[in-house]
Every structure is written in C-alpha cells, then in structure tokens.
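Appendix B. One record, verbatim.
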Amino acid sequence: MAMYLEVEKWQQGYKQILHDCRSKSCSTVLILCAMDTDALCSARIMSYLLRADNVSYQLRPCNSYPKLKSILSDLNSNVVGVILFNLGSMRNLVSNVPQGVTIYVFDCHRPFHLANIYAGKEVVMFLDRGVSEDDVPSDGDGLSGDEDSESESESEDEDEEEEHEWKDGDGDASKDVSGDESQKRKKGTSTQSIRPKRPRKHSVDEQETSTDSESEPEYAKPQLQRGKTNFQESQRSRRDRISTYYSTGTYHTAPCSWIVYQMSTQLRFSNLSDLLWLSCVGLTSSFQQNRISVTGYHVLAQDLKMHVKRLYPGNYSSLMKARYSSQDNTPIQTSENGLILCEPEFPFLLLRHTSLYDAMINSNTISLKFKVWTREGVQLLRELLAKMGFPLEECSQLYPFMKPLLRKKLKDSIEKCAPEYGFEKGELCFDGFTRVTGFQSLISACDLAHAISALLESNTSSSNGINHEQVKEQKNVSFNEAYDALNSSAELSEFINGTRSATKLQKGISLAIALQRNVISTAVNLSEKHAFIALNHFRYAYLHHADGDYNVFCQPLALTKLANFITGMPFRKKLPLVLLAEKESSDYLVLGYTNGDDDDDVVKNRFETYFELAAKTMQDTTVRFDSFLGNAVEVEGKSAQRFIEQLYYVMNAL
C-alpha cells in the first residue's frame, strides 16, 4: 500500500503524530535533522508545533547514513515516531524501521526510494506534488532497481542473498562499495557491462514446469507460450521503468521548511510570524545553494509573500510606501519589531553587514562577471559604481551608514546601468524577505541563511589531532549554535546592523564572509596553477593540504559552494566538475557537480550513478556513500586517482 501525503493531506500526518503520542503514556518523538539550513528551519517550526501540543520530543543532528542506522537501531522504547528532515528518502528505510515506530519523512532530495512509497504505515512521505502511475512503477520485487535483466529472470538467485541493507535490508548502512556484486546499490545501473553473463540456472520448479509442458496437448502449447512471453515482457518493461526512474539523476524539490510551514497553516498556527520567517529563511537558503531554479524560487516566494500580506495587511503597505518614498530617512519604530517585509534583494554578500564595495566584490555574480581578482575587473566594478552615481568613499563604508538617499536609489541605479555590463534583467535584483530586528535595524533572510550555513560547519573544518568523539562533539556544538542563532526572540533582538555584537548570529556572519573570500581565492589559485584537468566528459581538480588552507572544504556544503563558483568561471569548454578535497585522514571527499544552462531548468545530477559504476570496477578499494548528498563520496587516498580513471571509463562508455 502506498503511503504518501500530498498538499491537502499534510495536516493528517501531523495529527497522526499527535494520536500516536497520546495513545501511549510517556511517549516521545525523535526529530533527526540534516546539517543544512533548510532542515534546521524545518526542525524549529516542527518543535514549536510539538511544544504547543504538549508533545515531548528530542532533537538530534544526523550527518550520515551510518549515523541514521545507528540511531534507529538504538531507539528508546518510548519513541513512537521519528521525523526526518532532508535525509532518508533516497534509501530504503523499511528494513530499518523498529517495530511500533513510524518514520515521517520531509526530504527535498529526489528521486526517493520506491520502497518508502509502498511501505504502508511504517514510512510516511510528505510530498509537494502528486505521484502518478506514469511516474512511479508499481509495487513488487526489485524496487531498488539494482537487478539486471538476467538476475531478475532467475527467481531466487544467490545474488539476492547479497543485497545491501539499505536496498533490501541485509547489509551495512555505511554503503562501502568495493567492486563486489554484494555491494549493488539502489539506482538503476546495470552491471552487465562490468561482468560476463552467467549460464542460467534452472530451478526444480522450472524443471517440473518443463516436464508438465511436455505432457500438455499440442494445441495448448502456443497459448502457454504467449502467456509466458507476455509476463516476461511485462516484467522487463517494469524493470526498465525502475531503471530509468533511478538513473535520470538526483535533484531537489520544494524545501521542506516550506512544506512544514504550509502544514502549520492547515492547523491552528497560521498567524505566527516566527514560523513564516523560518520558512522564508529555508526557501532562501535552498535558492542560494542552487537546489531550486529561479522560476521555482519565484513561485514559492510569491506564495510566502501572500502570507506576509495576510499577517500584516495594514501597517505593511504604509511602511513600504514610506521606506521607498522621497524622504531622506524613514525610521523604523520599536513597535514594528518582528515585522516581515518583502523587499528587493541583491546578490551581494551580506550587504547590510559590510560595505557595498566589499559585498559586490565578494558576490558570485559580480566577481565572476567582472573577474574582480584581476586589475581590469576591479576597474570595471569601480566604473559601474561611478555610472550609478555612488562615490567610492560612500561605497567603502558600512552600508548602514551610507547616505539614506543612496541606499534608496540603489535598486533603480543598478537596473539602469547593469545592462551596459552584460547583466540580464533581474540578474542583480530579486524578491527577498527582510525582518525588523529593532530600531532602524534589519536582517534579510538571505543574510541569515548565509550565517546559519557557515555556523553549521564552523567547528568541523579542521580535525587535526582529535579523535572521533571530539569530532562528534564539535559537530553537535556547531548544530546547537546554528539552531540558537535562528531564535528570533533572542538573537535577532540583540542584533543591530553595522555593529560587532557578540552574538552567535554575528559569528555566523563573520564566518560566512571569511568562507566566501576563501572560496574565491581558492578557485582563482587553482585556475592560476592550471590545476583543472579537462577530460572528455568532466573537469577535475585536487585540493591538497600542502597547497593552502583547504580544511574548510572537507565538508560537503562548503565544497559545493566552491564547485558552484568554479563552474561559473570562464573555461573554453563547459563541463561538469569533480573536486577531490583531501581530509586529515588522507582520504578524499569527492564531489560531482553539474550546473544548469537554463535558470528555468531543474538540474539533475547523474554523478551518483557514475560514482556507483566506477566503484564497482575497483575490487580492492572502499568507496563510502555515506553522505545525504548523492553526488558526494569518500575514497581512499591511495586510490583517488584510479577512481578518477575508472570514472572516466564509465562516463565514456555510457
């Protein structure tokens, strides 16, 4: 039985959580949260709902699939439900569900594992769109999509005993792949090109069927043969559909923070601005990480904008009119604390917390277009500011202390001058969200998302000389700091633009600026050293410890940020990118990155499939697929180059 909830039924999933908790005394709910901003915002929204309904809950970070399996296997008997945010949907959760526990999955990663859809009441999926029979194959055997055409026709072959736990339930969740057939993964990637075909083994049942068929009358044989042929064609068609479903590549759908907020509005929490703000931050973070397209962001942003106007119908319009009137200064009163505004946002890094000049030079959009790491690029940027009528002296001081008149005409000046420098309409300005934090003090969802992402990996960039338990403690500290920084009632009330207050949020802002500067300098350094090696189907580069301070890029989010910047750099040929970041253990974090050509396209990344096939050809190497990002794996240091070579052969053969 398929168990997934579409938009109009999301509140039923939450009511089921309440029912399970209230039907058993001393019961609790466990919330597992991935280490990303969208998941963190979702967890904050959900924790508020549970507290309001007097439901006991635990909140824990979870950064890998082995960790997820370990947590599920050691659940307390009082736990009746487990809520997953941005993790779990791409693996078979059915075999890991403890008895009497229901797993509720809010995850924007796709494609989801088909076994989770047909898990019945054990796994409940919250989906932002419907599931049709045309998109999802029917229930039955082989939902992992890893059976080739020959092993599928063999009824109960010995290969089925070697299936991985996360696919059919009998392996190790760390998903080490060493080329053995026992390490087949869930995607629809046939191994026929890697191993020779085996002679088909005939079971006893087949022999009996064969004997019986000989005793059948001659006129019955054509009918039996047609039935058998139709069944085989049906099975083959189903296998092809499953294979196609998994092999098209990984991608993302609507942020789970948006889904959780929409669910809260279906309940009795539709008038809480704090929950709406968290959804705005989660959506903005997904947009920053290229998880959703420009069109997708615009659609969801318009939906949240309607909720903003619903919550602030009167004072919202008057305040916005005053803020963009011809007056030199429009003070924001203390009584408007917490007000959410829908304002034009610029792709300039942390503009309200640094100078306009620094924010532009540190942004991906400006730095890549002008090549600001060169003298000519800096000159172009200064020329743009001059044509806008912005003196360099004003642009070099903190943005909150610029002349109010300059700040108010920034949007119009940019839109007027940007086309002369090759910027398309809307490229330097988009719809954003801003919140009042105090008297004449604002913070944008864009800035907050940058800060939270930086905090999540702040204490995990270097693990030199510390053991596993200390690394685990560092990750917990990072998670708690980021979670606290989202607390609007405490952190935001103490935050003032243009100051260096000792809050967790200010720490995150400083870390985000430092990380972006590191991203730009690292990308330029790799380019100047000609470290990028272009092959037929992808371009790759190593990040070694000896080459610079690259420890920060041993984390998937930071490495993804670097990959996103590099793919925007001018190369002779546009190719997917593979980065290999050396860790303290001398292993490599390998990330495959694909950037779309069209802002309206949902980019599907096929590197997970390529990595799996490459790993299967390496008999003596362990490749770990532990990350919730399908396009990130860990490879032994001594085998990193051979992994790249096998990846080349795999992509060349497909």
